[in-house]
Design brief:
The structure holds two protein chains of two kinds.
Chain A (H helix, E strand, L loop, with lengths): L1 H26 L4 E2 L5 E6 L15 E6 L2 E9 L7 H13 L1 E10 L4 H4 L11 E4 L6 E4 L17 E2 L6 E2 L19 H15 L4 E8 L8 E4 L4 H14 L5 E4 L8 H8 L3 E8 L12 H6 L3 H8 L14 H22 L6 E3 L4 H7 L17 E2 L1
Helix pairs in contact in A: 2-9, 5-9, 9-10
Chain B lengths: L1 H23 L3 H18 L4
Helix pairs in contact in B: 1-2
Classes of the chains: A alpha/beta, B mainly alpha.
Amino acid sequence: MALRKVLIAALGTALAVFSGFSFYRSRHLGEPVVPGPGVARVAKLGDYFPGIRGSINDLNVYVLEGQEPGGAVLILGGTHPEEPAGRLTAWILAENAVLAKGRLFIVLSANRSATTVTRLGGAYPPDFTIPTAWGGQKFRMGDRWSNPLDQWPDPEVYIHYPTRQQLAYMDIRNLNRAFPGRPNGTLTEKTCFAITELIRKEKIDIEIDLHEAELQYPVISTIVAHQKGQDLAAMASMIISSNEGFPIGVESSPPALRGLSHREIGDHTDAVSLLLEAPEPFLDATRGRTNRELLLTGKDEFIVRAGKRGLLFEKIDEKGWPIDVRVGRHTTTILQILETWSEDRPARAVVVSGVPKYAEVIKNGTGAYLKNPKAADPAKIIYE
Amino acid sequence: MVVTILYYLLTAYIAVVLIGNFIRSKKWQEEALYIVVLIPFLLRLLRLK
């Protein structure tokens, strides 16, 4: 019996070591960023709120400055890291954008804690690789919620601050349910408070939060706009839908649903708050195998079947929704929003170049716009 | 922070109980079950997931 117990304990230990090593490697995978020619400096989120300094969410903030003064725009990638088009779009901006006018603040991992974990029990892949001419760049998969290792336990009911609206318990770790945040709250609330402070202190004119959505969710392929930004979003939507080869709608930010960036940042700061949604079949509940291929190709026969039965809010066929299409939608939408804003308000213009549009990203691939860290000056590489 | 520490203490207590049950158990099926159930508690204590 003793030998049997030793054998079972040894098998259990081997399983724990194997899984523990996999989780450790996933949590600590380095993601290099080669800041582009437009990056003037890389600030930390803790510079705006000392309460977040030194924590896992003391984020890098890539600051691009133009030759001429103008407005200021904040791009948030990685609010929900399991929606990779948001982080990849922010990556492309940080590594390629050049500003002629104004300032651009880019966050690649708005909830860095959530990039270090995958859905508990969800069998998500731990990472994914974007192919490049120099071999490929690996990214952490991430989840929708902050890592329980950084914020635990969850309450029975999450009560949003300051409205006291009752939300689902796990959304206390959801960055897009915790705005405007509070200085003495949870890690997620502190992160939201620090981002809100950044917006106030840097006098941000427009904040754009990059997301992806399942096809069974009605808010998809759209710009969600606070009432301050509805004219801007509507104009950008019309121009994109007419000229850029893909349709994108506009949704009003619902005043009764609290904690979301497009609602709270608009309410609590002077910034116009917008949120972009691209289609991501990986998130759909009726998907097949939850693997890297589905994440990057967006192809899934079960979701196609759901579409044939009229259960989806976005079309899908055997071509799926490849990552390049989703990233391209985001880059073009950002560029059009900036162009429309700058035409209307020349004194607060933000003029950017060097960022590929929808057709270019599809033609060349997302990887064509990622810089090779091995070819860069090691002193300049930043790790997310 | 206090609640978090209490939860880690609770996790450690459950892990110790599971190990005790594993040692006392006489059926191999129960021993295997205790070990499998123990793994997530150990990983949380080691701050791995």
